Amino acid sequence: MLIKWCWIVEEEMEGVTLKTFLKQHKRCSSRLLTALKQADGLLVNGERGYLGKTIAQGDEIAIYLPREIRSESIRPVPLPLNVLYEDDHLLILNKPSGLPTIPSRNQAEPSLASAVFYEYIWKNWEASFHPIGRLDKNTSGLQIVAKHRYSHCFLQEANNLDLKLKKTYLALCEGEFPGNRGIFTAPIGPAEHSLIEHCVRTDGKEAFTQYECISRRKEWSLVSFQLATGRTHQIRVHMAHAGYPLLGDSLYGGNDYFIKRHALHAWRLELTHPLSGERLEIEAPLPADMNVLLGEGEVDRNRRSEM
Questions:
Q1: Is the domain of 126 the same as that of 205?
Q2: Is 56 helix (H, G, I), strand (E, B) or coil?
Q3: Between 41 and which of 64, 155, 266, 283 could a Cys-Cys bridge form, CB atoms 3.0 to 4.6 Å apart?
Q4: Hey, which residues does 44 pair with through a beta bridge?
Q5: pTM score
Q6: One domain, residues 57 and 110
Q7: CATH label of the domain that carries residue 103
Q8: Mind spelling out the 3-state secondary structure of 76-144?
Q9: Which residues are catalytic?
Q10: 125 and 263 housed in the same domain
Q11: Within this chain, do residues 83 and 127 fall inside the same structural domain, yes or no?
């Protein structure tokens, strides 16, 4: 498997270094540039390129991605994958709840990474596992996986800087949620009494969670969320702090009588394809354990009522 990209230097790039061209204008990370340099994967007009070389208008810049070595700590496992989109650059999956994105440290448990590795071996695709963000084990829904280092660099930057990548989550929160829309801004940090739990704390990292209440019942409310930051357990922590913990989220005080995992689903994804520039909009239907509490089609009915 050989992955190659070529670009012709335009007039506005005249006089910059190869490093500046690739890092600032083509979103190559420092780690990728190091790998390309070590593998002689940088070419300028067909000859070996050096990162400090000044480039000129009309130059042809080519990169050849080096072969990737899969992590030996993740064993391939033949698990079914719910693939919603795939090409040579990225994979978008509907992850079920109960399946970790990657296995826990020092554990050989099945994971999404295990299933993806098995598919890669079957398809002779030589790549490591490059998730963009990482869904919690019990969070269901859309998980992006970059299929090589370059698309990983592009999408990771988009995820960190909110560059045309938007993910919408749906959650069932306890009680009748007040207000229709707004934003939670409380800072989040690790809880002192736990290695897993996080909490709102004045010395935590800034966290911004936009919300919109879709429907309310006496026992619970259906709420959509978009994250402007990516703190650990961000939605779960903010909702628990506000007094409306997620159903099933026993770690943060949620009632697990109706559902045995926190009722959080990565529902909708909008992003610009890292190579083609195509705008993708993908949805993962609510899983059965959340849908049965809402009644079939409640999300769709509310969408139609807003049209």
A1: no
A2: coil
A3: 64
A4: 47, 61
A5: 0.86
A6: no
A7: 3.30.2350.10
A8: CCCCCCCEEEECCCEEEEEECCCCCCCCCCCCCCCCHHHHHHHHHHHCCCCCCCEEECCCCCCCEEEEE
A9: 136
A10: no
A11: yes
Which residues neighbour 194 within 8 Å (Cβ) at sequence distance 6 or greater? Answer: none
Alpha carbon distance 107, 271 (integer Å):
33
Residues 154 and 185 both lie in one domain? no
First to last CA, the chain: 47
CATH number of the domain bearing residue 8: 3.10.290.10
| pLDDT tens, position by position, 185-221 | 999 999 998 999 999 999 999 999 999 999 998 889 9
| Amino acid (one-letter) located at 104 | S
Within this chain, do residues 142 and 244 fall inside the same structural domain, yes or no?
Answer: no
- Measured between alpha carbons, how far is 86 from 104 in angstroms, rounded to an integer? 26
Could you list the residue range(s) of the whole structural domain that residue 285 is in? 164-307
DSSP code for 50? -
Over the stretch 247-299, which tens digit does the pLDDT of each residue have?
Answer: 999 999 999 999 999 999 999 999 888 778 888 999 999 999 999 998 755 55
Cα–Cα dist 184/304, whole Å: 27
